[in-house]
UniProtKB/TrEMBL annotation:
Residues 509-531 have a biased composition (Low complexity). This is Carboxylesterase type B domain-containing protein. The keyword RNA-binding does not apply. Keywords: Glycoprotein, Hydrolase, Serine esterase, Signal. Residues 22-561 form the Carboxylesterase type B domain. Residues 1-16 form the signal peptide. GO terms for molecular function: carboxylic ester hydrolase activity. Residues 78-97, 501-538 are annotated as: Disordered. Belongs to the type-B carboxylesterase/lipase family. It comes from Microctonus hyperodae. The keyword Signal applies.
Length: 596
């Protein structure tokens, strides 16, 4: 009898250990088995990776809106990342069947059923120019954000031609990758409670192209009711050139690259459907007009009415905001201090070694390169005037060289990030009933995505702030032995967690932060909020624009970021009247490049 009891005890212990190392959750769709990771300070994170949220977008479903996922009968293995969507030069496993998401939660399955214990949810849309990257845990690890009691969801969505081909008809209506994101948000609404998430407290967070996505969900009728707060980091859809209604010429170029006949849509799509996903993904760089720019080859489009097709974007984002056809929620939106400035690093270093070929190309072909690199119309007197005035305002009419390369970098930063965000802030602050929080991330740490050959940082570059939100495997993790960086990490994650909880980035008097941690933990939210309480992060308004500078100190500042430069771009690219974008910019359908 004792032996029998011992066997039962051992079996029970083994089962308990297995449930801890491979926790299982029962959802409406089926059972899911996950794994256990550790937060930065060693707290358990229950991770469920590679969960299918839509059917495979293959065969006749290619280029179309996603179909809702079907239930499964056997336990789904969600112990590792799913495949990335097809893209060029990826070291990840890829598949066209890539519509997967990852869910990270602090609560074990046994504690996930109580509604009172549900935590706020952040859904993250990755950057990558709409043609690269993924939600993989080695790229966007949860170890920092999951110090807070939140549920984090990271989402794969279709990229490149597979996600954004648009011909203005039912063959490729456009915005398939954005509709993937909508389907992921619908999945979250139906299933996140089983992971201890609150479906009524969802914050969407996007970076770069993901931020453009967030700014479009803010105005999309498809996204209504799917989120309660929005965070757009280093990107917005209100660029100086309006979004096209289709990208037919780019679709033809894609078809020709793969040897397809373009005489008719029927013949072209029959051929494109026969090509492998890898062929479509690998060909993305060949579609760009100019290599080396921070370009987004395929763009979101304003969709025409097509019978039986739900439209993600029925009009220009600026028009929808001005008509108050928006999903009015609190918005946190901002930029990094130096953004795309590092695009000039290579040219500068080559020039310092005696090779001026890149700068010579700018100087000899400025009127041709500028409209491509800075995204405005080619040819014509207006294009010529804009090119001249950009050079005059930013470069003082001097030739591009190593001595003024940073000013060239400022143009890239402004046209692809700073100006679209500035314009979005202005519009949302005036026309939304909800607060708009505007910020500049200016904290330069020891690590960066953009370094000179001597190892020094360019500045605070595009994506540098992601190093304080996610554990990125290609970069060393931040630890308490780095006091400056660690303080920034604590501040930044606390700002995001606060906003995800209440719609306010800094705590108000007597308010607790999202998800209190152990009182003796250095990541304790109350401790972090004591630091954040030193500043009152006020919303920016149409009457009183203001922003928070996140640097060595937290400082509220009046006005707009880089206001003088923004005023010049406002002068060069005035916002068309509602419904008049196509008349003011009649040729915008032809362009290939954009920002990511």
């Amino acid at each position: 009898m004792k032996v029998f009891c011992l066997v039962l005890c051992i079996a029970a212990a083994a089962l308990a250990a297995d449930s801890q190392s491979n926790p299982e959750v029962q959802t409406q769709l089926g059972r899911i088995r996950g794994s256990v990771l550790q937060s930065r300070s060693g707290k358990p994170i229950y991770a469920y990776r590679g969960i299918r949220y839509a059917q495979a977008p293959t065969g006749q479903n290619r280029f179309k809106a996603p179909q809702a996922v079907q239930a499964w009968s056997e336990t789904l293995d969600a112990t590792r990342d799913g495949p990335a969507c097809p893209q060029p030069s990826s070291n990840q496993t890829e598949s066209e069947d890539c519509l997967r998401l990852n869910i990270y939660t602090r609560q074990s399955p046994s504690n996930s059923q109580s509604q009172s214990s549900q935590n706020d949810v952040i859904v993250f849309f990755h950057p990558g120019n709409y043609w690269s990257s993924s939600a993989a845990s080695q790229e966007f690890g949860p170890q920092y954000l999951l110090e807070k009691n939140i549920v984090l969801v990271t989402v794969n969505y279709r990229l490149g031609s597979l996600g954004f081909m648009s011909t203005g008809d039912s063959n490729a209506p456009g915005n398939a990758g954005l509709k993937d994101q909508v389907e992921a948000l619908r999945f979250v609404q139906k299933n996140i409670a089983q992971f201890n998430g609150n479906p009524n407290s969802v914050t969407i967070l996007g970076y770069g192209a993901g931020a453009i996505s967030v700014s479009l969900h803010y105005v999309s009728p498809m996204s209504q009711g799917l989120f309660q707060r929005a965070i757009a980091m280093s990107g917005a859809a209100t660029l100086q050139n309006p979004l096209p209604h289709s990208q037919e010429q780019l679709a033809h170029k894609q078809a020709e690259l793969l040897g397809c006949n373009t005489d008719s849509h029927q013949a072209m799509f029959a051929c494109l459907l026969s090509k492998s996903a890898e062929q479509l993904g690998d060909s993305a760089p060949q579609l760009a007009e100019r290599q080396g720019d921070p370009s987004l080859i395929w763009t979101p489009v304003v969709e025409p009415e097509i019978p039986g097709v739900e439209r993600f974007l029925p009009a220009q984002p600026a028009d929808l905001i001005r008509e108050r056809k928006i999903n009015a929620v609190p918005l946190l939106i901002g930029v990094n201090r130096d953004e795309h400035g590092p695009v000039v690093i290579n040219a500068t270093q080559q020039s310092q070694q005696g090779n001026n070929s890149i700068f010579d190309d700018y100087n000899n072909n400025w009127s041709k390169i500028a409209p491509i690199s800075f995204y405005y119309e080619r040819n014509g007197s207006r294009s010529t005037r804009i090119s001249k005035e950009l050079k005059s305002h930013y470069l003082n009419d001097q030739p591009v060289s190593a001595s003024n390369a940073r000013q060239l970098g400022n143009i890239y930063s402004d046209v692809w990030v700073n100006f679209p965000v500035y314009r979005y802030v202005k519009l949302a602050a005036e026309y939304s009933s909800q607060p708009v929080y505007y910020y500049q991330f200016a904290s330069e740490g020891s690590d960066s995505f953009a370094k000179w050959s001597n190892g020094s940082n360019y500045g605070v570059a595009h994506q540098d702030d992601l190093l304080y939100l996610f554990n990125v495997s290609s970069h060393s993790p931040i630890s308490p032995s780095q006091p400056r960086e660690f303080k920034t990490l604590q501040r930044y994650t606390a700002l995001i967690a606060n906003f995800a909880r209440s719609g306010q980035p800094t705590p108000q008097s007597g308010q607790n932060n999202a998800g209190s941690d152990d009182s003796n933990n250095q990541d304790n939210d109350a401790n972090n909020n004591a630091d954040l309480a030193s500043v009152n992060f006020q919303p920016s308004t149409a009457a009183e624009p203001k922003y928070l500078e996140i640097g060595e100190r937290l400082q509220m500042k009046s006005g707009y970021i880089n206001a003088q430069r923004m005023n010049k771009l406002e002068e060069l690219f005035p916002l068309p009247a509602i419904g008049q974008s196509d008349n003011q910019y009649p040729n915008n359908q032809q362009y290939y490049t954009h920002q990511g």
